[in-house]
Amino acid sequence: MARDELSRALTLRWQDLRGVVPWGDTFEGISPAGRYVEVERSYIWAAELGGDILCEVAVYGGPSRYDQGARISAVIPRPA
Fold first, then answer.
1. What pLDDT is recorded for position 42?
2. What is the C-alpha radius of gyration for the chain, rounded to an integer number of angstroms?
3. In this structure, are residues 53 and 17 in contact, taking their beta carbons and an 8 Å threshold?
4. Alpha-carbon dihedral of residues 46, 52, 53, 59, nearest 10 degrees?
5. Each residue's pLDDT tens digit in the chain (80 positions)?
6. Which domain holds residue 23?
C-alpha cells in the first residue's frame, strides 16, 4: 500500500510542489487486508532549499503503531 501511495504522490511535479514545500498530509484509509490505517505523505527539501524534493510515505495502523508501519521514499529531482 505504501508503494502504491508513493507512486500516486510522485505524480506531482517539482514545479507544482516548490511553492508549498515543506508540506504533508495524513488521511485514513483501508489496507488491502481490510484494516484501517493512516497514510502519511510529506514533501521536504532533500538537501538544500530549492533543490531536489524528498517524498516520504508512511502507512501504519494508528499512532501507537507508527514505528511498526511501512515507510518508503523517493526523490523528485529539480529540473535542469
1. 96
2. 13
3. yes
4. -70
5. 999 999 999 999 999 999 999 999 999 999 999 999 999 999 999 999 999 999 999 999 998 999 999 999 999 999 98
6. 1-76
Instruction: Look at the block and give the residue holding cell 506531482.
Output: 12
Q: State the SS3 of 15-34.
A: HHHCCCCCEEEEEEEECCCC
Q: What pLDDT, on a 0 to 100 scale, did the predictor assign at position 80?
A: 87
CATH number at residue 10: 3.30.1300
Total structural domains within the chain: 1
Is residue 9 classed exposed, middle or buried when 0-12, 13-18 and 19+ CB atoms within 10 A define those classes?
Answer: buried
- Identity of the amino acid at 34: G
Name the one residue in this structure whose C-alpha cell is 505524480: 11
Whole-angstrom distance, CA of residue 22 vs CA of residue 76: 13
